[in-house]
Amino acid sequence: MTLLRFLPLPLLLLGAEANAQCLFDPVDQGKVMKLSASRLDSAKGLPLADLSLMRVENGQLVPVAFQFDEMSDHGMVWFEESGFDRIGEAGRLDGDDRLLAMLTDAGPRRPDGLEPREGKLLADLEVATDCHFYLVKGNRQRSENYYVSHDSDTGRTRTALYQLDVDPDNELNWRYLSYRGYQGEGSIIDTLKMRMSAGVLSKFTRMTLDNYNLRPQLVGHHVGPIRSVMHLRTRVVLAGIPVMTIQVQAMRYATHYEAHTYAKIPELYRATLKEPEVSVTVDGNNQLGAQVYTHNFADNPITVNGVADDDSFAGQPISMSENWILFDSGKDFTLLTELTVPPELMSVPLSLIYQDNKQLTVEPEQFEGQLPNLGYMLKGWPEQRELRFTVSLFFDSSMRGFAAEEYADQRSRHVEVRVSP
Q1: Which of 308-322, 326-340, 364-378 has the lowest mean pLDDT?
Q2: What element of type H or E holds 408?
Q3: In the prediction, which pLDDT does 6 show?
Q4: How far is Cα 370 from Cα 355, in angstroms, rounded to an integer?
Q5: Among candidates 113, 101, 123, which has minimal Cα distance to 30?
Q6: Assessment of whether the complete model's pTM goes beyond 0.85
Q7: What element of type H or E holds 246?
């Protein structure tokens, strides 16, 4: 990709200096406005190339970074080789196309009579408290700011706040994560781990697939100013039986990472495979002394000590509606994870995976021990034939003075947008 201008840290944290009238909370850093085309009536059907986003700065309208992503019938970003159907017409704002922008790029309200030097105002998008974006048609100005640099050939991602290196041939194998200001040594994490297991015909003849077996193949990749999207496909085979095809979209943002997963489960294999389980975890690298919170342990976190003495914490059932996990390293890095599923899957049983053992080996891994390995276990087939879930990983320097539950709520809360013509 051609990197136009990589936005420096002060602007990421505070928004544009000219936006003194538009204040944001520190927990707002990196939040993204995501707006469906269904809410932009004044721009429906218009060519995407004719649309742009602006804000008020120094008494005039100036361009801000944005991107449009065209969506598929499976709620994912559309790629030609995905096999999904695109919703709407190519290159036009329609269907469920998404407009994305950084929340902290919004500016103050437009004074009466202020118009762009070129083009026409279509909509006022108000975010936060009296902070605004303006959707414009026919203006050729574009911001050169990029919030994400991602090279899929090398597997390296850079933003103003973190660096993530993954195996370019296997997105599941994370190799290195650093965060600006982190006080520890080396990579914060060992790797990401995904597992699928099931009994074949009987619950006693279990087979397990891991990162090596679930090697995802790249189908499509797009890097925009706001996020990078990779579409990956994995064909799951257990005991020679082709069970299903998993489609994953890995998304990198300025301060977080998302993995959106979709799979269609043939009815035959629902009967063939017994007690299936899917797990997604992050293995920390030597995070002794860190504290881990869940909704059930919001006021009584467990401390990572490298000893398997966490029976009341590990394996705890988790409510799908309150499934956040908060990891605080105590070294100026926190990780908040959240699992999101559609309403029809809210009843799927979910439990916490927590392994705190400096001698335990759980492949794949670069460093000895699980210090800690934490994440989610989904158990059983959903009643529906489709399995959908999103795992979000939010990176930060601290809990910003919030209690654990309040921080989890504030950090993962979606940006509300009020649209007016």
Answers
A1: 308-322
A2: helix 404-412
A3: 52
A4: 6
A5: 101
A6: yes
A7: strand 241-252
Total residue length of the chain:
421
Is the four-CA dihedral 117, 121, 125, 129 of positive or negative sign? positive
d(CA 343, CA 141): 41
Comparing CA positions, the residue from 135, 140, 128, 144 lying closest to residue 55 is 135
Both ends of the chain: CA-CA distance in Å? 35
Q: Which of 278, 279, 283 shows the shortest CA–CA distance to 373?
A: 283
Per the CB < 8 A criterion, the answer to whether 254 and 147 are in contact is yes
Comparing CA positions, the residue from 325, 125, 148, 340 lying closest to residue 230 is: 148
265 pLDDT band, cuts 50/70/90, is confident
**Interatomic CA distance for residues 203 and 379, integer angstroms:** 13
Antiparallel, parallel or unpaired: β 5-6 and 145-146:
parallel
Q: How many CA atoms lie within 13 A of 155 on its CB side?
A: 13
Q: How many Å apart are CA 317 and CA 57, to the nearest integer? A: 49
Q: Is 152 exposed, middle or buried (0-12, 13-18, 19+ CB in 10 A)?
A: middle
User: How is domain 152-412 classified at the CATH fold level?
Assistant: Beta-galactosidase; Chain A, domain 5 (2.70.98)
Q: Using alpha carbons, select from 80, 62, 155 the residue that is nearest to residue 117.
A: 62
Whose tokens are 């891991």? That residue is 210
In 3D space, the residue among 44, 43, 41, 40 whose CA is nearest the CA of residue 94 turns out to be: 44
Identify the CA nearest to 377 among candidates 244, 246, 280: 280
In this predicted structure, what is the pLDDT of residue 178? 98
Q: 62: Cβ–Cβ under 8 A, 6 or more apart, which residues? A: 54, 55, 56, 141, 143
Domains of the chain, by residue range, sit at: 5-147, 152-412
